[in-house]
Amino acid sequence: MTAGSAAMMLTGEAACAQTYQECVAGLVALGVSPDVAATQCSQQGGNSATCLDRLMYVNVQANSGPTEIGEWRFDVVQGPEDGSAMRSSGCRTVGFAGMGGWRCPNQTMRFQVMTAREAQAVCSGTELPATTTVILNRSGNVSTSGQVLNYSFTAQSGQRIRILVTPSSGSSLDPVASLRDPLGVIVADNDDRAPGDVSSEITFTIARSGQHQVLVEGYGAVSRGNFNLLIERF
Does residue 16 sit within a domain? Predict the structure, then answer.
């Protein structure tokens, strides 16, 4: 995605009449994780109300529990991959960046993964414009082993943020990006955004208003080089 304001149009046939592949692609484009999109699309019925409900919510049951403090364990994130839906439902991560799983207050959880407007657009096949606004676009350099660069920006609760750290042309940097909230808690991080692509990308729904920080470093605290940082809101 290029810097600056841009617009994307999500179009297509009604989701309840779409092919399975079209349905999954449409949901992933709206920020739903691929595994949840696959489940939702496979369960869609022909009724419009059923279509809306299937798209807006995902119902899941804990893998095990309760734990010693009465919480139920979910091994993987449910809903948006940034975990925003789980946190809003009272869940918490266990281990660094949730690698140890999630603990939630209830055995069966119902997560909202899409707004009613977004779901209606997908179910009806109407166009849904989405604009992006650049918050920060800056070049940087990790010049020494173990160096961590810090970039601040202000965001409001509910805003959806995308962070992209890309090595500059000819740079040997393998960047790692982390997002720190106003309380100083690392709420999201990423090393490689896809197999074979060392760029780091985080898409996150802001849970707490205030000043956030993006931390950029080299993988393994040894990688060095130039990079470009893009932070945008959409």
Answer: yes
